[in-house]
Amino acid sequence: MKIVVCIKQVPDTTNVKIDPETNTLIREGVESIINPFDMYAIEEGLRIRERAGGGEVTVISMGPPQAESALREAISLGVDRAILISDRKAAGSDTWATGYILSKAIQKISDYDLILCGKQASDGDTAQVGPGISSWLDIPQVTYVKKIEKLEKDRAVVERMTEEGYNVIEIPLPCLLTVVKEINEPRLPSLKGKIKAKKIEIPVWSADDLGLEEKKIGLNGSPTRVVKIFTPPSREKGMILDGPVDESVNKIADILKDVMIG
Amino acid sequence: MVDYLLTEEQQMLKELAHRIAEEKIRPVVKEYDESGEFPWDIMKIIAQSDLFGVYIDEKYGGTGGGVFDLALVTEELSRACGGIAVCFAASALGTYPIILFGNDEQKDKYLPDLAAGKKLAAFAVTEPNAGSDVSAIETRAEKKGDYYVLNGRKQWITNGGEAEVYVVIAVTDKSKGARGASAFIIEKGTPGFEFGKKEDKLGIRASTTRELIFNDCKVSSKNILSRQGMGFIVAMKTFDCSRPGVAAQALGIAQGALELALEYAHQRHQFGKPITGFQGIQFMFADMATELEAARALVYSACRMVDSGAKDVARASAMAKLYASDTAMKVTTNCLQIFGGYGYMKEYPIEKYFRDAKITQIYEGTNQIMREVIAANLIKELSKKK
Taking the CB of the first residue and of the last residue of chain A, which one, N or C, has fewer CB atoms within 10 A? Predict the structure, then answer.
């Protein structure tokens, strides 16, 4: 089975600061890591390959030249190859444009059965790029996958997490799945992987290499306009009822009545 | 910090072992210390990270390093748990005789699985009546045609029952004294080879220490290491390679304790200030850090000497083990002292370091035996000059 995993390099913090002037993230002085959700996608790809006793896991990432270090980390975890998609023309791409660019890269790879993505990136939190890629490629997708129950040559059965539980979905291959952290526990790198990662040459694909239409990429090609960006105020503390149970139950009932009816 | 000029690969494996120690071992240290269960889940993680093969030739699936690489991993793992680290290191102790004395057939058969961490190894010398006096071993191996029949008991064998591959020293010719013992590779499951009592220990409780029982156990002559009569040479040369590993375990235990004590002392307030503000405490830390660094420099030098292929490494190896383990006992004792009453309580992590440090002064040759080795070596050298 040929698997493509899409990853993103993100700042190593869940508490990113925003520059109020430019409405962009302040990246200086913050270390970069592989988006934590993408680590589950890489791990799942590796497990599928190991279970099958063969196959290939290719990791791709779009980003500035320094995103190469995220790809080297993926190599140290055991993926077979990594490709960086990097071009100044693509800078400032929104989720629509990024989906387009990654889909063109996957088309260039051409031979694939399964595409895996993390459910969302920890910096942008949009959860749109995975579904975007599948739309551009015109292949089916399942988001929030917490388990791959069955994986055959031309179909898969997966569990899709919902707020109440999960759906069991059958999907033909090739397809795209975005995964949640419940799916596995990512491994640590191996020594041989680290040695390989140090030496390996990571190819860089440009906009020209992928034959991208310029009007669909970069800041100008992106339909999204960020009007305002701000840190939301922290939520007010909830009320805690710690009296005797009977008393608390009556109190909750009164509060609910007020909210629902009153 | 002192720069030990590690190679890029050594830095990588040290960093990897550090991550395993912090992310995977540290959260389960207390659990394993209490239960005394064998930490198979951690062994699997170490295997998956290729660290079981750091001292084994690339030809057999290792990464081709030596005793130094093994020591660096052992030290990092020991920072979090000296018990879990010894499960790893004891497999190397059982593997070294095969690396040093195995023929091609034996190496091809055993080393790949040991390098991959698919199987663990163990080394069995000690018996109830043969501790420091290795020549007193009573386990007999009687030659009968093209196999040997073993009878006897081995005691306090680290990884006993968990390991698949055992290197066992047994007497093949009592009349020949020191030349009368031989080393055998024996696999778990061989008829007549069973496991006895599992020990309940003061420290390194995550590791398994168990009795091996041989009852008319038939072992093929193909499983003899080197040749008949080489048993003591096999044991001594193995210890030359493994003692720096015990020394590294001691370094890691001491380092882990020192870090915990420093952190504690900095947040512990008495008389209105952190206790790191008192010179009495400061000097304790300064002395501990200095002695630990001196021990590290000695251990690393000994490792490099062994890896260089130097001929006579017994003295350096014994010195490293002696000094690092005595330092570890001293450092962990003082670290517990800095924790005061809290240090004596099981709720705090420091008492475990104190318990774990003790064994490093005892096993793989007591520190009294180490001093004998060093002194004998000095005297031998003197008599050569005359």
Answer: C
